[in-house]
TrEMBL record:
Protein known as: S-adenosylmethionine:tRNA ribosyltransferase-isomerase
Associated pathway: tRNA modification; tRNA-queuosine biosynthesis
Organism: Sphingopyxis terrae subsp. ummariensis
Database matches in InterPro entries: QueA, QueA_dom1, QueA_dom2, QueA_sf
SUPFAM superfamilies named in the record: QueA-like
EC number(s) given by UniProt: 2.4.99.17
Matches recorded under HAMAP family: QueA (MF_00113)
This protein's record includes keyword S-adenosyl-L-methionine: yes
Subunit structure, as described in the record: Monomer.
Subcellular location: Cytoplasm
Task performed by this protein: Transfers and isomerizes the ribose moiety from AdoMet to the 7-aminomethyl group of 7-deazaguanine (preQ1-tRNA) to give epoxyqueuosine (oQ-tRNA).
Keywords: Cytoplasm, Isomerase, Queuosine biosynthesis, S-adenosyl-L-methionine, Transferase
Gene: queA
Enzyme class: transferase
């Protein structure tokens, strides 16, 4: 499909620069089939059925944004994907001033060697020493806020907690699974009281999630791979949810993409560990999920393509027009939507 089919006009003032406080005070647009209802995140229990299961991503965002120098050149690096214990793939700003074999000093006793440059222009950075790279990043790095936020204000200490979900346990993401930013212990307790189950999986979200689609046709776009894991016990429990007639609801496009990567043509979710570069566009047949809770996404983005595949392009264009007109807040720190397709 043509990428411009997924374009829409978004007023800049609709972009949220801070999250709702408390987190579960955010608004939520429910799209069930083609019907739309204005609600709030705290209303989520009434939109689900006892026995339904929400699936969360327990990845933890690391301070993967680095600013340093190579000689007199300022070099910025956004770590994208771990390749081994001391090496990360990174998008580099001012890359023309960095050559293979040169070292970037990021301050606080942290440096990295540019070992290789890949076909997509990213670098392999090697962090020497004995300290775990995670500790080095805690000293020298900042939270990698999306460019549509970072371009409007500086990252600050509040973002270290704001840009982390309550489920965050496993270090490795360079972008938050933002749909779950809305959850609080109180909301989770209300869901449990209503008989709603929950499961977790891990997908380490990469910086590629922010990259624009530069191709004119979706067939020409190449997704960046991200690493994820679903263990056998979790897969069995999720399959049991659907076998008894209840629904699996992915919380966030990251959870959805990993579930769909792990499911076979028969709709059975299997244990999974490894990279996924799944790219979901209209025409895709969903196998593992029955609904999605997600924030509002960028025009022409792979994530708007994904929700259009789930609900239909016309439905999502109408839903986004409704959200814009109704003052919903967009993107990572914005409001939420609950998408329940007709099956």
């Amino acid at each position: 499909m043509r990428v411009d089919a997924f374009d829409f006009d978004l007023p800049p003032e609709r972009i949220a620069l801070r999250p709702a406080r408390p987190r579960d005070a955010a608004r939520m647009l429910v799209v069930a089939g083609s019907a739309m209802t204005d609600a709030g995140v705290r209303d989520l229990p009434q939109w689900l059925r006892p026995g339904d299961c929400l699936v969360f991503n327990d990845t933890r965002v690391i301070p993967a944004q680095l600013e340093g120098r190579r000689g007199d050149a300022r070099i910025g690096a956004t770590l994208h994907k771990r390749t081994d214990l001391r090496r990360w793939q990174a998008f580099v700003r001012n890359a023309k001033r960095l050559r293979i074999g040169e070292t970037v000093d990021f301050g606080a006793g942290v440096s990295a060697l540019a070992e290789d440059r890949l076909a997509d222009g990213s670098f392999i950075l090697f962090f020497p020493g004995d300290e775990p790279v995670e500790l080095l990043l805690e000293r020298a790095g900042t939270m990698p806020l999306p460019p549509y936020i970072a371009g409007k204000r500086a990252t600050d200490d509040a973002d270290r907690s704001d840009y982390q979900t309550m489920f965050a346990q496993k270090d490795g993401a360079v972008a938050a699974p933002t749909a779950a930013l809305h959850f609080t212990p109180d909301l989770l307790a209300a869901l449990g009281a209503a008989g709603i189950e929950s499961e977790t999986l891990t997908l380490h979200v990469g910086a590629g999630t922010f990259l624009p689609v530069k191709a004119d046709d979706t067939e020409d776009h190449v997704m960046h791979a991200e690493w994820g894991v679903i263990d056998a016990a979790t897969a069995d429990r999720l399959n049991a949810v659907r076998a008894r007639g209840n629904r699996v609801i992915a919380v966030g496009t990251t959870s959805l993409r990993l579930l769909e990567s792990a499911a076979g043509e028969d709709g059975v979710i299997r244990p999974f560990e490894g990279d996924t570069a799944i790219f979901i566009t209209p025409g895709y047949r969903f196998r593992a999920i029955d609904g999605l809770m997600t924030n509002f996404h960028l025009p022409r983005s792979t994530l708007f393509m994904l929700v259009s595949a789930l609900m239909g392009l016309e439905t999502m264009q109408a839903a986004y027009a409704h959200a814009i007109a109704g003052g919903y807040r967009f993107y990572s720190y914005g409001d939420s939507s609950l998408l329940l397709p007709q099956r």
